[in-house]
Every structure is written in C-alpha cells, then in structure tokens.
Amino acid sequence: MASGKGSAVVIMAMMMMLCITEQAIGAGECGKTPVNVVAQSLSPCIGAANNAKAKVTPACCAQVRKTMAMPACMCAVFLSPLAKQAGINLGIAITIPKRCNIKNRPVGKKCGRYVVP
C-alpha cells in the first residue's frame, strides 16, 4: 500500500509538471492569444501595410498600439502565414508604428530582414 501511495504522488507530480510545461509552451510571442487572432485584429491596417503613402487609419493605429505592448508579437504578426496570405508587404508594414507616431516602438529591432524605423 505504501508503494502505491508513493507511486500516485509521483504520477501526480509528473502530471502537474506536464501541465505547467504545456502552459509555458502555450505562451508565445503574443502571450496566450494566437498570432493569427492578433493578425486578424490588425485588418484595419491592410491598406497602410501595402501602400507607404496610404493614410494610416485611427482604427489601425489603435490596434497597433495594443499590439506594440509586446514588440515580438508585432513582428510575429507581420511574418505570419495570414499576413503573407493577405499580401502584406513587410517592408511597408513595419513602418506603420512610426506612421502612427508610436513613441515607444522598438526602433532598430529586426523583424525578418527589415528593421523597425
């Protein structure tokens, strides 16, 4: 009986470790929110992401400000399969935080082959 209780404790401890590991792995560049969900929230930016001369809408800037709380998330969104499917031009999209006049953007951070201006 004593060995049965000991085995149960070990199994419970292993299960707890597995759950903790899964939660840590689940927290990506955008926290617990999947990158594609964040990418969809930035849909007001599509025009500005494809045309450097296009006006960046207030709705786009509001979403970018939220996303910029995690700079790695913004880069992950720009490099996501959904952004590629939407035809986003990364070289132009990476200028959106500057065009929105976001002061705390990660200037000089690399995102793919581009650098945040």
From TrEMBL:
GO terms for molecular function: fatty acid binding. The keyword Signal applies. CDD domains: AAI_LTSS. Coiled coil: none annotated. InterPro entries: Bifun_inhib/LTP/seed_sf, Bifunc_inhib/LTP/seed_store, DIR1-like, Plant_nsLTP. Pfam families: LTP_2 (PF14368). Residues 12-111 form the Bifunctional inhibitor/plant lipid transfer protein/seed storage helical domain. The keyword Signal applies. This is Bifunctional inhibitor/plant lipid transfer protein/seed storage helical domain-containing protein.
